[in-house]
Request: fold
Amino acid sequence: MAELTLDGVTKHFDDDGDRIVAVDDANVDIGDGEFLVLVGPSGCGKSTTLRMIAGLETVSRGEIRLDGEAIDDQPPTMRDIAMVFQSYALYPHMTVRENMRFGLEESTDLPDDEMDRRVEETAEMMGIGDLLDRKPGELSGGQQQRVALGRAIVRDPEVFLMDEPLSNLDAKLRSQMRTELQRLQEDLDVTTVYVTHDQTEAMTMGDRIAILDDGELQQVGTPLQCYHQPANRFVAGFIGEPSMNFFEMRRDGDLLAGDDFEYRLSAESADALGDADRVTLGVRPEDVELVGSADGDHDFRTTVDVVEPMGNENNVYLTFGDAADEEARTFVATVGGMQAVDAGESVVARIPEDAIHLFDAETGEALKNRDLDATEMSTPSL
Reply:
């Protein structure tokens, strides 16, 4: 077990004289035994960051430390780090047993009987004890993924690195393996850095998540912190499905005016905006309520455009204009699955002020996040 620190880590590539910055000044402290998820869109620098930790890419600037010791100049074999790749990277001509032993044979001087013991114990833990004499071509995707994980586990490393290891699995197996990976990491208590572009994996698996965009670290926090208290508009829009609704507004005192509606703020919310005269109002779909009649400043007459039934809930796409108008902007409300709503219906959408987020329209910085009452986030008593 170990603490892993990224201190101002930067990576740039030279392309015919042009400098391309892949990772820019990343600072993250990863605690002993912590499961940190690096998440972001394709090309944001998350896999490059992982490869720098592994030693597969050099660090252009900054330092990577393992338990306080700089490891930037150490070759990958000296870092006591095990990596699981997206492609599994199994040797097709070797059996499962040989694949799992390979790392031990190359990096340790353990006796054969000790290597066999580790391989067999790990295979049983991973549920592949009866597959040790098969080759990768005879295994399913889920079984190959377990072999790749087992190969990392037998090394008993200080740190696990995982580069989108579930992306090649079908949706049901991916969901199952998410749970298995969480349980496994808790049992092993090994510091883990997990890369994914899937925000569902990030929200459900990580102790904390680190969100990157265009090589820059946007926010590091618990999944709920990033969801309810995003640092900026990018984080707010990236985390959550369906995405947060955004409305561009002009400010006049305590009144926000947009192309489709006006929204009056309380004095407290208006004060949080400082001198900003253009803001983005954000609200998550599950916080938009459909009510019977318009009774206040935050109730708006809308038209149902499309309804997506999900079983336990419905995603209702609403527009302030005519649903037949192709130029009309839509936003989403997520309501209970038993709430009947039909396309073309006129409904009242309520956007409660205690649920809204406000961002600076110029910088994207969060000026006000939704109010989280202590009772909303409390742990129920047993």
